Amino acid sequence: MFKVIQRSMGPASLSLLTFKVYASQKKDATHKATVKVNELSLYSVPEVQSKYVEEPRTELEESISNLRQYCEPYTSWCQEKYSQTEPKMKSLVQWGSDSYEFLQNAPPGFFPRLGVIGFAGIVGLLLARGSKLKKLVYPPISMGLAASLYYPQQAIVFVQVSGEKLYDWSLRGYIVVEDLWKENFQKPGNVKNSSGNK
Q: How is the subunit organization of this protein annotated in UniProt (predicted)?
């Protein structure tokens, strides 16, 4: 058995050896002209003038092209509206998630206060029977009064800011009415001459 293993190991071990082979030129050979790579027939490319020819459109391609041209104004309008509403929707989603987090971790006593403020709004709605204007005015006023009992500092800030805005709006309205008055009633044709016929 030892002889079989020894004989088989010899040729197998020779395959693992590496040999270096050095090539040398023959001294008797004459120098022939060298051939460049682009001169070989394998690498030669025939010079042909190519020309692009557009294939005629099929009926399907023509109808799809017409459909795309027809829908282009609508798709551009939709893309424009989407780009305008995307930031608003993101801010709305952010506000909703912030509100949800606040309601999950609400401060103590928040929900009873919210119930009282909501009940005040329902009472204001019941008091506003008959007129649509009363239904628009009474519930916010009663809710505002109930909220000002629980949050007096925020109510003071709200009244100050809203008072400034109301004052600003009234000044703007006064300026607009004054300009309209000057344009319509002080034109030379509208002013009557005091020395007119009697």
A: Component of the mitochondrial contact site and cristae organizing system (MICOS) complex.
The SS3 of residue 122 is helix
DSSP state of 43: T
Q: Is pLDDT above 50 for 189?
A: yes
What stretches of 55-151 show up as alpha helix (H) in DSSP? 59-104, 110-127, 132-150
Q: What is the pTM of this model?
A: 0.41
Crossing angle between the packed helical segments 110-127 and 132-150, to the nearest 10 degrees: 150
d(CA 86, CA 94): 12
User: Tokens 């004054």 map to which residue?
Assistant: 178
- Beta-carbon contacts of 38 under 8 Å, excluding residues fewer than 6 positions away, are 44
What are the two backbone dihedrals, phi and then psi, of residue 15, each rounded to the nearest 5 degrees? -70, -15
Each residue of 118-165: pLDDT tens digit?
899 899 888 888 888 888 888 988 988 888 888 888 888 888 888 899
Distance CA 37, CA 139 (A): 94
- The one-letter amino acid at 34: T
Burial class (CB in 10 A: 0-12, 13-18, 19+), 114: middle
